Amino acid sequence: MSESVPGTPPEVFAPVEAPVSPPQALEEVEFVQLLTPEGERVEHPDYSFDLDDEAIKGFYRDMVLVRRIDSEATALQRQGELGLWASLLGQEAAQIGSGRALNDKDMVFPTYREHGVAWCQGVDPLRLLGLFRGVDQGGWDPKDNNFHLYTIVIGAQTLHATGYAMGQQRDHAIGDAENGEATIAYFGDGASSQGDVNEAFIWSSVFNAPVVFFCQNNQWAISEPIDRQTRIPLYQRAAGFGFPGVRVDGNDVLATYAVTQQAMKRAREGSGPTLIEAYTYRMGAHTTSDDPTKYRLNEDLEHWKLKDPIERVHAYLTRHAAVDHEFFDQIEAEADKIAAELRAGCLALPDPVLTDFFQNVYVEETPQLAEQRDQYAAYAASFEGEG
Amino acid sequence: MTKITLGKAINAGLRAAMEKDPKVVVMGEDIGKLGGVFRVTEGLQKDFGEDRVIDTPLAESGIIGTAVGLALRGYRPVCEIQFDGFVFPAYDQIISQVAKMHYRSAGRIKMPVVIRIPYGGGIGAVEHHSESPETLFAHVPGLKVVSCGDPVDAYWMIQQAILSDDPVVFFEPKRRYHEKAELDESVPPVQPLHQAKVVREGTDATLFCYGPMVKTCLQAAEAAAEDGRNLEVVDLRTIAPLDLATIFASVKKTRRALVVHEAPLSLGTGAEIAARVTEECFYHLEAPVLRVTGYDTPYPPSRMEDDYLPDLDRVLDGVDRVMEY
């Protein structure tokens, strides 16, 4: 008869230690960089920035304005005018660099944080606020600016982008690197863990769809660090799916422009998908609902502030393009004006009425829904005239 | 006029829709060279090419998610989910994206996507191959849910579903794929997609059914007739939205109603019909609305399915109960 001996469990039941990759210091990360944090241009064997200083001035303006739109929206949330806001602070270069690399006919599938890409596509910033204020669920027509609605469910839009790109393929809209069409899907490092994103990689690869996957690795999926999503650099995953992956300094607007432009050309000419990992940092909270001081170190933020995407362009323009104060002052004035308009526009957004939201559930309305709408309207009308 | 099976009727319907509109694309697993595991898409890839009859990777969310993108581009995708129980990896894309896109966009975007699902039991299959999840879709605002009960309906309803600018989940009664009927393709349907059909007139009670249960209920009505009971049989055809006008008219005529479906009892189509009929026809009723359905269990092993599924005897037992009041 064997005795039950309390003691150490057998080795196979030893507690499993979660593998923790050493955190990658920015200096150790290999990526495409064309403008250093100090504002110096550098060469890269595969990528170059071909535009002139006027274009860089334009990028600077874009970045300053979207940062201001973003900070104004954050302020509006803090004052109770928005229910929520997802800040892009720190990701301006990734969004403006990639956004400005798109052609008129390219199509964009964003998450809910792509305010900078929306800006590049010409979407009125006020339209972005409706979703967060709770007056609509996307106040723009995706066809007007080739900018799809914000997608909240993480990663779902990567499949939509892939399907859309398959449509471009079927419409014979590809085959020409300059005049062809392609699609770009934005997502974050957290989304890279989603099944839909991995399915989108498979689909785009086996169908050779003209889609670029632009992952803004901002290091955090709400409170979960990148180590909780992957054990290898995200861009390396592309190789497993059979298409190229490239990591770019996501705080370098010249590099994100150059890398995105090349990937989009590749897609338009019919050479298939590319995964771009823009290595960046979310300097604010995930949304206004969370408190990043609970899960990350202040020194990390301070470290990344030194890599600020706007400051480095400012330094470059000052030192090498002889841009004077007046230029910067003008942009600041323009930012003030846009922010004031955004604030006034936000406060003036009309509250919708519920009867509006019985519309558009279906193209062909159901009798049941029509009945419910009428019942609600009668019920609401019964209060009319009451104090 | 030729006799055609329900499966071939859907094939012919798909073919007709694809011929009429080059934007119709069919997509799913094994639908190309194999013609689908039930051969419903047989021959389509040969005639329309791989760009319009798309053999997809084996990932259901991908099938529906890319269909969303194709629809945004102006295509009309018809997705095949191989079996009922395999639809759930795609459920998020269906209910969060396909169903809501028109609403979210304030009507700017249409989602003319058809999701074909062979469903229901009775074919001796292994688990996850015999489920009836229609209510899970019917409960989602933005989706329309239909099921065909005979080959003629199958032929026309699949075309009507493809023409619909709303997303349609199209449930095909897999155990009826081999049922035959005369089909005259030159006679357009009387019924729009979202209208129920009285398939047998009667006076004593109404059997409400759809999909695989239509045949069972018609057989039950024949058997009941031998006992002198004159049963009406209504093929609902549409589950979301329910054709309440036809339902109420029938109940007001017969004053007794029995809902028959394979799906589990609780919170199902039968429950909705019972509630609606109670609200609208209370003073016409001689008996409460009763239900003969599957049970509130997962679909059982196939050796037990004859006991699980509503059959002639269980339907007739339900008729006895509804007539007793």
Topology at a glance:
The complex is a heterodimer of chains A (387) and B (325).
Chain A: H1 53-78, H2 92-99, E1 107-109, H3 115-121, H4 125-133, H5 142-145, H6 156-170, E2 183-188, H7 195-206, E3 211-217, E4 220-221, E5 224-225, H8 237-241, E6 245-249, H9 253-268, E7 274-279, H10 298-305, H11 309-320, H12 325-348, H13 367-381
Parallel strand pairs in A: 1-2, 2-3, 3-7, 6-7
Antiparallel strand pairs in A: 4-5
Helix pairs in contact in A: 1-2, 1-3, 1-11, 1-12, 2-3, 2-9, 6-7
Chain B: E1 2-5, H1 6-20, E2 24-28, H2 44-48, E3 53-55, H3 60-72, E4 76-80, H4 91-98, H5 101-104, E5 114-119, H6 134-138, E6 144-147, H7 151-163, E7 168-173, E8 180-183, E9 197-200, E10 205-209, H8 213-226, E11 231-235, E12 238-240, H9 244-254, E13 257-261, H10 269-281, E14 290-293, H11 305-308, H12 312-324
Parallel strand pairs in B: 2-3, 2-4, 4-5, 5-7, 6-7, 10-11, 10-13, 13-14
Antiparallel strand pairs in B: 1-8, 6-12, 9-11
Record field, number of beta strands of chain B: 14
Point out poorly predicted stretches of chain A.
Answer: none
End-to-end C-alpha gap of chain B: 46 Å
First CA to last CA of chain A: what distance? 85 Å
Largest interface: A-B, 42 and 47 residues
Which labels suit this protein?
A: about 375 residues; two-stranded antiparallel sheet; 7 strands; B: alpha/beta; 7-stranded mixed β-sheet
Could you write a compact summary of the structure shown?
The complex is a heterodimer of chains A (387) and B (325). With 387 residues, chain A is α/β, with parallel strands linked by helices. Chain A has helices at 53-78, 92-99, 115-121, 125-133, 142-145, 156-170, 195-206, 237-241, 253-268, 298-305, 309-320, 325-348, 367-381; strands spanning 107-109, 183-188, 211-217, 220-221, 224-225, 245-249, 274-279.
